[in-house]
Design goal:
Elements: E1 2-3, E2 38-43, E3 61-62, E4 65-66, H1 67-76, E5 81-88, H2 93-102, E6 108-112, H3 117-134, E7 146-149, H4 159-172, E8 174-180, E9 186-188, E10 194-197, E11 204-213, H5 214-223, H6 226-231, H7 235-243, E12 248-251, H8 262-276, E13 279-283, H9 288-302, E14 307-311, H10 321-324, E15 327-333, H11 339-351, E16 359-367, H12 378-391, E17 395-403, H13 408-428, E18 437-439
Parallel strand pairs: 1-11, 2-5, 2-7, 5-6, 8-12, 13-14, 13-15, 15-16, 16-17, 17-18
Antiparallel strand pairs: 3-4, 7-11, 8-11, 9-10
């Protein structure tokens, strides 16, 4: 079994998470139920030399979040995972603590790592046992039955696969993810010539996550030698060699790929943007004109593979969108000022979402007069000021000015243009256009 880095297998559509629950810290529990305590250890002490960047890759930022924050949230979203230990290098402890506080990660404990990967993982495993012994009675989590070990730079792990790993680990003592080998593995001579090749069909790439009962992984580290700590990388091998525990191997989805190189950061950002851009909520304010425009835009954006829900407001049953959706479109008719957008932003703030990804709010002002100009010159400045304040809360606010045409062909072209602009804003999530009042 060969340890893979996942670089050869990149998913086009990973099925990362439902668009309306992407990265939510308070999403509803899934269908899975686990009746034993589970915790996770995320080793994050690497220097990221292969990315060619000065910043370790787990701390590189895209969409206003460090990579490790996405991975943590993938575990925090799973209701049956009680705690997450993140193991970092000594010099990164303060940075990691700041990330936990800034992005409201509630299940996380930061632990200082060791000089090698195995030493760091063992520090994390020991911390899970010490938390119970040192905590006040009734306040500390129960020592986990199963420990899931996962790379901090694999952000796209899904709950269903974590469930498979956790349950198999409980039954077998150890379990791990595998993937088919994409390339043939060869051995070379010391002179640099081909020695032999392996039969690819007989081998698999060892991936993460891996799961163990707490006693198995703890005892494996207690019994292994300095050579294992210094040069080893495979936790499943330690469980087999020192505890006699033969791991159950489970073929994982292509979403388990690892951010290894600089280009992988761009790929990860692209995947998240694509996932967040699948739907939007349109608020009409109860206006018939706004509702008519919303219906027309809904059809146009449907052709662009984006699903729109049209509602008059965000009250009552519609308030769920405040917690579920990542894109909002407020349609206003001329004569209305920014008060409708201000009310929406206030409602989003009151919802108190810990925003893993930036929300997009688009204000579409429908001008039903014959003139093409914007009435008054204060609104462009006003939307810029409002957008600046919203951006500090991880909300990207854009504005579009649309002229109501009485000519059917011209109106159809305008609606199509608005749909294309909104789709681009939602997909790109570009901070450069925040606060601008675009014309359509």
């Amino acid at each position: 079994m060969q340890r893979g880095n996942g670089d050869a297998d990149r998913p086009g559509d990973p099925g990362l998470f439902p668009a309306r629950e992407a990265g939510m810290s308070s999403h509803k529990p899934g269908k899975r139920r686990v009746d034993f305590p589970v915790a996770a250890v995320l080793p994050a002490g690497g220097t990221g030399e292969r990315t060619g960047l000065q910043t370790p890759k787990q701390f590189c930022t895209f969409l206003n979040r460090p990579l490790i924050s996405y991975t943590i949230q993938a575990f925090e979203r799973v209701s049956w995972i009680q705690s997450v230990v993140v193991v970092v290098a000594k010099e990164s402890t303060d940075l990691m603590t700041d990330i936990v506080q800034r992005f409201q990660h509630s299940k996380v404990r930061v632990v200082q790592g060791g000089s090698t990967r195995h030493r760091s993982i063992f520090n994390g495993v020991r911390a899970l046992g010490e938390a119970q012994a040192e905590g006040e009675e009734g306040s500390a989590p129960v020592k986990p039955k199963v420990v899931i070990i996962h790379d901090a730079v694999r952000p796209f792990v899904e709950e269903d696969f974590l469930y498979k790993i956790a349950t198999a680990a409980k039954e077998q003592g150890a379990a791990g993810a595998i993937r088919p080998l994409v390339s043939t593995v060869i051995a070379t001579t010391s002179e640099g010539y081909l020695d032999h090749s392996l039969e690819r069909a007989r081998y698999r790439a060892s991936e993460m996550p891996q799961g163990f009962t707490y006693d198995v992984i703890y005892q494996a580290y207690q019994r292994c030698g300095e050579s294992d700590f210094e040069f080893g990388t495979e936790c499943l091998h330690l469980a087999l060699q020192y505890c006699g525990t033969n791991a159950k191997l489970i073929e994982g989805p292509p979403t388990l790929w690892k951010v290894t190189y600089k280009r992988d950061l761009a790929a990860a950002e692209s995947i998240i943007k694509e996932t967040l851009s699948r739907s939007a909520c349109v608020i009409t304010g109860g206006s018939a004109q706004a509702a008519a425009l919303a219906d027309a835009v809904q059809k146009a954006m449907g052709a662009l593979d984006m699903e729109l829900d049209v509602v008059p407001d965000l009250k009552g049953d519609n308030a769920r969108y405040l917690l579920e959706e990542w894109n909002f479109i407020q349609v206003s008719v001329s004569g209305c000022c920014l008060s409708e957008v201000e009310a929406m932003l206030a409602a989003l703030e009151a919802a108190n979402r810990a925003l893993l990804h930036p929300l997009v709010v688009i204000w579409v002002r429908l001008n039903d007069s014959d003139g093409l100009s914007i009435s008054g010159m204060t609104e462009p400045a006003a939307i810029t000021e409002l957008a600046s304040a919203a951006k500090r809360r991880n909300i990207l606010l854009y504005g579009i000015q649309l002229h109501q045409s009485k000519e059917a062909d011209r109106w159809e072209r305008s609606v199509l243009k608005v749909a294309e602009i909104m789709a681009a804003l939602i997909r790109d999530r570009s901070p450069a256009l925040v606060g601008q009042l675009l014309q359509a």
